[in-house]
Design a protein that fits this description.
three-stranded antiparallel β-sheet, Transferase(Phosphotransferase), domain 1, 13% strand, globular, single chain, five-stranded antiparallel β-sheet, 13 strands, alpha+beta, Phosphorylase Kinase, domain 1
């Protein structure tokens, strides 16, 4: 919940709604998903139910449709709770026993749905439940006392056993693969439908871009002939500051309009519903998606990446162009063309130093992903603000301690976190906040040298 204000005797609630797809709808489109993904979804759902069990009045009104599947950073599909439907539907009151029985039956049918390859609708009362849940239902009927949270934990144990069985069979519990399990969020669907109307020649029968490296942008299209890509942005009227002004400035700059480290933009289309950037397709991956896919980068990976970014920015600045970079989503990594491409799972497991030749790409425009609510954007904005909105040092502070900042954002403890637990690095970062000119090539280079010395990277 981001805002609560009283107006005309009532209460107006403004909530961040994830751009995801309802869980039942998602299951209808992917009835036979990989087992490791299926059981992870079940565990995520039970985890939400355990949290909601602390608010029985709310849980009494929760339906399966209130859970949505969203692709975290375009990489990991995850279940999120969307409270709006449960808050506006007619209220019902259930006892703990009734809630326990209701959700045990629902999860039993979901277990059977995945075991049988999606043959029956998972949440319809006419669907048969799973044999594995019989003893839980029998225990309920015999009146054995357990808290609602304990009953959900029993159910979670059943799903954990399924994952353990997969592991014993040599199957990896790996959900990196947003490209194969792609949630259809309402915002992305709306933008795509408007893009079809705006440019039917290229995008009348377009498909969602599969950019490679297990990343699929919800806000990018690829024409069927593969010759054009379309970047979907919100309409200009949604914002006080233009999203495409930096694009127009770049396209009018003789040095920057065709710079190889900026994605090619061939046309810009704007109306009251959509902004569409048409360009050439490229197999690049945004930095937040890469970091999520690899569960963080090491300092030995961050330093060469920062060096490549520094040199690109120095080129731009030498031509009198200052790129307005405000978010890691504007930084992408792209393999150099003309080389054999390793498998995506290899790229995820390899250190960047073991990759084939790659380069940093810089977008002067913000992507739609950077405007959506989420843990990654929350942690980034916190660090960015504390570094005086100086992108270059903020990117390194955020990236070097990515796991810590992500966890703190998830638990609501960002305000308590130092920029670094290392006293020397903390002093360097605080000095950068006060004194570094992030648009000076010489000062960035000195900052990188001091950082490398402080990290003691061999």
């Amino acid at each position: 919940m981001s805002l609560e204000e009283k107006t005309n005797g009532g209460i107006v609630l403004a909530l961040s709604i994830p751009d995801g797809e309802s869980f039942p709808s998602f299951l209808n489109r992917f009835p036979a998903m990989p087992e490791e993904a299926a059981w992870k979804f079940c565990l995520d759902l039970v985890a939400w139910l355990k949290v909601l069990s602390a608010s029985p009045r709310l849980l009494s009104n929760v339906h399966p449709d209130d859970f949505e599947v969203s692709a975290r950073d375009g990489v990991f599909p995850e279940i999120l709770f969307c409270p709006v439907p449960s808050m506006i539907r007619e209220e019902v009151t259930l006892s703990d026993f009734q809630m326990a029985r209701l959700w045990t039956e629902r999860l039993s049918r979901l277990h059977a749905f995945f075991k049988e390859g999606g043959k029956a609708p998972p949440f319809e009362e006419t669907s048969a439940g799973s044999h594995a849940f019989r003893y839980l239902l029998k225990e309920l009927e015999t009146g054995r006392e357990r808290s609602l949270g304990d009953r959900f934990e029993q159910i979670a144990d059943l799903f954990r056993k399924e994952i353990e069985m997969l592991a014993r069979r040599g199957r990896r519990n790996d959900l990196a693969g947003g490209g194969s399990l792609y949630p259809e969020g309402p915002l992305a669907s709306h933008f795509r439908s408007r893009a079809f109307l705006a440019d039917p020649e290229h995008f009348g029968d377009a498909q969602v871009v599969a950019a490679g490296m297990e990343f699929r942008s919800r806000f990018e299209l690829l024409s069927r002939d593969g010759k054009r890509s379309g970047k979907l942005l919100p309409p200009e009227q949604w914002f006080e500051r233009s999203l495409i002004a930096p694009v127009n400035q770049r396209l009018s700059h003789p040095f920057m309009k065709a710079h190889p480290q900026c994605p090619r933009v061939r046309a810009v289309y704007c109306d009251e519903y959509l902004t569409l950037l048409t360009g050439d397709p490229g197999a690049s991956i945004p930095l937040p998606a890469l970091v999520t896919m690899k569960d963080g980068l090491t300092s030995a990976e961050w330093l060469p990446l920062a060096g490549k970014l520094h040199r690109a920015l120095s080129q731009f600045e030498s031509a009198g162009f200052t790129a307005a970079i405000e978010t890691p989503w504007q930084i992408e990594l792209q393999l150099e063309p003309g080389r054999s491409r390793p498998r995506s799972e290899q790229l995820a497991e390899w250190s960047l130093e073991d990759w084939p030749a790659w380069e940093v790409m810089v977008r002067v425009e913000r992507s739609t992903e950077s405007l959506l609510p989420g843990i990654t954007n929350l942690s980034w904005l916190h660090v960015f603000g504390r570094l005086g909105e100086k992108f270059f040092p903020a990117l390194l502070v955020w990236g070097l301690d990515w796991k810590r900042f992500q966890w703190s954002a998830r638990t609501g403890n960002l305000g308590r976190e130092p920029l670094s637990w290392d006293e020397k690095l903390l002093a360097l970062f605080e000095a950068a906040r006060e004194h570094l000119d992030a648009h000076s090539s010489r000062q960035r280079e000195k900052f990188l040298a001091l950082l490398e010395e402080g990290l003691n990277v061999k």
